[in-house]
Amino acid sequence: MKKVVAIDGPSGAGKSTLARLIARDMGFEYLDTGALYRAVALQLMRLRVGEDASDEAIATALARTSVEFRDGRVLLNGEEVTDEIRAGEVSHYASVFSARRPVRKYLLDIQRDAAMNADLVAEGRDMTTVVFPDAYRKFYLDASIDERARRRTLELNSRGIAADERLVRIEIAERDDRDAGRDIAPLRKADDAHCIDSSGIPVEEVLRRMMGVIRS
Predict the structure, then answer these.
(1) pLDDT digits (tens, 9 = 90+) for 157-195
(2) 129: Cα separation from own chain's centroid
(3) CATH no., domain 4-202
(4) How many CB atoms lie within 10 A of CB 192?
(5) pTM of the full predicted structure?
(6) Residue ranges per structural domain of the chain
């Protein structure tokens, strides 16, 4: 396996932004694992696989599914779905289905295989604890729920999607509960991960701190 900088943390903590910047500065490839889960969720939605579907039904659906993350684009069965997977409904189902064993098993090898041929910056919910437990550097990036709701609302509005910050906050709180409470690979800080709270801190400063750890 090549070098991996692994970043975990809750939704809206800034993982994707910092992962891209670190990958740029290090000359590493960026692996957006959240996009992979969203693509899987979109496929299951298209196949009308419900939240209460059996593991067997989910596994059967995934057997005819191809998901790729290439040059910042997400491909689902060869179709680019980079923008479509950012819809609110897809985000909800991505969180729901990410707790299911067949989904995590399906994506585990895809994520690990990415590190066989290239140095990576990988971000998600279980990068430091499950997918890359022996990562070169590990981070847990956090932020207050109010800060994360504000960021998410601004992001949605910038893409022309109307969003109510109060409702976004509720959705984030619900997702936090699902991510931390699931039986399979729950969101938690790895014992050897560097924890950084980005609340109220400019992206440039958070990047400086993370790069300092990486280069130390």
Answers:
(1) 888 888 899 999 999 999 888 888 888 888 899 999 999
(2) 14
(3) 3.40.50.300
(4) 10
(5) 0.83
(6) 4-202
